[in-house]
Design goal:
Strand content of chain A: 15-25%
Radius of gyration of chain A: 21 Å
Order of helices and strands of chain A: EHHEHEHEHEEEHEHEEHHHHEHEEEHH
Oligomer: homodimer
Structural class of chain A: alpha/beta
CATH class of the largest domain in chain A: Alpha Beta
Number of domains of chain A: 2
Number of strands of chain A: 14
Distance between the termini of chain A: 43 Å
CATH superfamily of the largest domain in chain A: Type I PLP-dependent aspartate aminotransferase-like (Major domain)
Largest interface: A-B, 59 and 59 residues
Chain lengths: ~375, ~375
Amino acid sequence: MVSKRYLFTPGPTPVPPEVLAAISQPIIHHRGADFRALYERCLQRLREVFRTESEVLMFAASGTGAMESAVANLCAPGERVLVVSAGYFGERWAAIARAYGCDVDELRYEWGAMPAAEDVAERGRGAKAVLLTQSETSTGVVADVQALTAAARHVGALAVVDAVSSLGAVPLETDAWGVDVVISGSQKALMTPPGLALVSVSDAAWAQLSSSPRFYFDWERTRTAQARLDAAFTPAVSLVAGLDVALGLLLHDGLESAFAHHVRLGRACRAGVKAMGLELFSPDDDRSSVVTAIHAPDGVDANEVVALLRDRHGITVAPGQGPLKGKVFRIGHIGWFDVFDITTALAGVELALVELGGDVERGVAVTRALEAFEEAQTVR
Amino acid sequence: MVSKRYLFTPGPTPVPPEVLAAISQPIIHHRGADFRALYERCLQRLREVFRTESEVLMFAASGTGAMESAVANLCAPGERVLVVSAGYFGERWAAIARAYGCDVDELRYEWGAMPAAEDVAERGRGAKAVLLTQSETSTGVVADVQALTAAARHVGALAVVDAVSSLGAVPLETDAWGVDVVISGSQKALMTPPGLALVSVSDAAWAQLSSSPRFYFDWERTRTAQARLDAAFTPAVSLVAGLDVALGLLLHDGLESAFAHHVRLGRACRAGVKAMGLELFSPDDDRSSVVTAIHAPDGVDANEVVALLRDRHGITVAPGQGPLKGKVFRIGHIGWFDVFDITTALAGVELALVELGGDVERGVAVTRALEAFEEAQTVR
C-alpha cells in the first residue's frame, strides 16, 4: 500500500497544489518581462501581507539569513543591542548579534515565558536595537509585539521582529505599530517551500545603517535592484513563482480571515488536547495560535511520541527543543491547514499515546476539537 | 496560439522535467528519515561532481552567497587577497573582498582576456588567498584553473575558484589540482532551479579560518550540521530534492560524458556563428564551451538582437554586460542542452539579424553546426 503522509510541523509546512504547480513550471529568466511582472506583483503582495508601505526585501535564503541581515545592516561591532529571548529562536538572535561583535544584553526568560514590555522599557535604554521574536516556535508563545515595540521605541531603540513563523497567521501591523524591521520566510504561514527570506525596513532603520561587513545580505544593494524590478543576484525564480501564487491565495480572502482561521485552529487543537487529559505547555490564549506545545503524559517520552507517529502512522509533528527535549511535542497549525488536519493530528496522538501506555481519555478529542472550531466561528 | 519559449542563457538554465517533478513533490520535513536519506545521497553526489573527498557545504542562497562565504570564512580585515578579474564576475570577487575590508590587490585584465598563471605567481606572494573565476560568464572565457591554482599554491596562497557556471560542464579536478575552495550553484550545469549555493573546502583552507563576522554562511556550523545529516538552518527541501535528481542524471553517464558533450555543443555553436559570417567575442577554443559571446554585426545593436529574439521569437539569450553592453550577445549552452537547442538558437539569431538589417550569410549556420557537432563525436 502507498501510505499517506501528514506534515503537522511548524515549518516547513504543507504547500497547496497550486503553489507546487507554480514552482514546477519551466524556468524563466529573471531579467525577462514575464519574471519582472511576476516579481513586481509578488513584491506588492508582500507589502500587503507585511502591512507596510516600505519595500519588502527578498533574499534567496532561509529565514535566519534575513535575521542576520538585520544585525549586519543595523549593528556595528561594540554597539549595544537588547535581545529578548524566551526560547530557541530568541537565543538565535543573541548568537547572531554576538557573531557580529555587538555588545549583547540578553533579556533572557525561561523557555515558555511571555516577555514583558516593562522589562524592555527598563533594559532597552542605550540599545541601538531590540531584537524580538513574535512567535517563539520552540514554545508556542506568541509575544505581544505591539507592546514590546512601543517599549523599544520609547527608549529610542529600533524594534526588530522575527516573524518567521507568525507572519500571515497572527496580526502584525508593521507600519501601524511602528515595527522597524520585520523578518519572515516563505515556508510557514506563507505556504511556500523553504528558500526565500523576507525583510521589511522602516525609514528610521534605513537612516541608521551600520558599517558591519556584508555583501549578499546588504539591504541597500537589494533595495536598489528591486526598485528596477531586478534582483541583486539570481533569484530563486521557481520559489518566487510559488510565493506569488501562495500570497494570492492568502490575500484572496484577506489577512483578517487568515488570522481568524488560525485562532479557530488553535482553539480546536487546544480543546482536543485538553479533552484527552493532556497538559498544554504553550499558552491557552488566542494569540498563541501558531503551534501548540503539549506535555507528554507521565511516564511517556515525548520523543517516542514523535517517532511513533512518524514511523508507524506517517504523521510528522515536531519534538521539543533545548530544555524541552523529550518533555513536549508540538503540533504546528499554520498556513495551508484546516480543522481536519487538527483532528487527524489529535487522532494520531491519541493512538500513539495509547500504544505507549499513556493515560489518556479516549474518543473525545476529535469531537471536542470540532466543537471548539465551530464555536469559534464568530471570532473577530 | 500558445507560444513556445526557449531559454538559452548561461543561467538560470532549462531544468529537465524529472527535476521539475521532484521539486513539486509535497513538502517533507528536513529532520525526517526520508529527507535525511535524500540529503545524504545528494551530498555524496556533490562530492562526485566536485571531484573531492571533502564535504561539500550546501546553503540556501544564490551562488554569490557561497562566494561571500569564502571571503567571510577565510579573509580577515586587512588581510591581503589577490583577485584575478577579467570580467563581471571577477569584479564581483573584488567587491566582496572590499566589503570585508580585505587588502585587495586586483590583477585586472581587459574583459575577455585569459588570465596568466605567471601573473598570479608574481602578484600572489603574501596573499592569503587568490580569488579566481573558472568560467567568466560575462565574456565566455574559461580560464586555465589548473595552472592558476598551481601558481597560487606555489606562492603559498589558497586557491579559491568561482565555478558557478562551469561545474559539471568543463573539467574541474578539485582534489587532483589542489583547488582549496570551489564555489558553485544549482542553476547552471547542475540543471536545477536557482536557490542552492555550494562550496567545497580543502583541509588547508579549514586550517586557516578567519575571524570575520558570519553566521548564516559560517562553514563550521554548516559542516557540523551536515555531519549529522542535519542542516544548520531549514534547507530548501524542494530544491534539494530537485538537485538530487539532477545530479543523478548527470552522473548516470558520467562527468566525462558531460564534458565531451559541452565541447561538442561549443564547437557546434561557434561553427554556426562563424558560418553566418559573425565574429566571436569569446575564444574559439574547446575549453570555453560554457557560453558563446558573439559580436553583433556592424550597424546592429546587440541589445536589439536580444530584445527581438525575446519579444518576437520567444527565445531568451543574454545581452552583453559592463563594457560589452550593446556590443555582444551571448548564447549559453550548459546543462540540459542538446544540439537542436544550438540550431534553434542559431536559426533565431539568423532571423533576428536579417530583420535588423545585419549583413549575414543565410541558410548555412544550422547545417554547419550539425556537421561540427557530428565531427566532434570522438572528442575525448
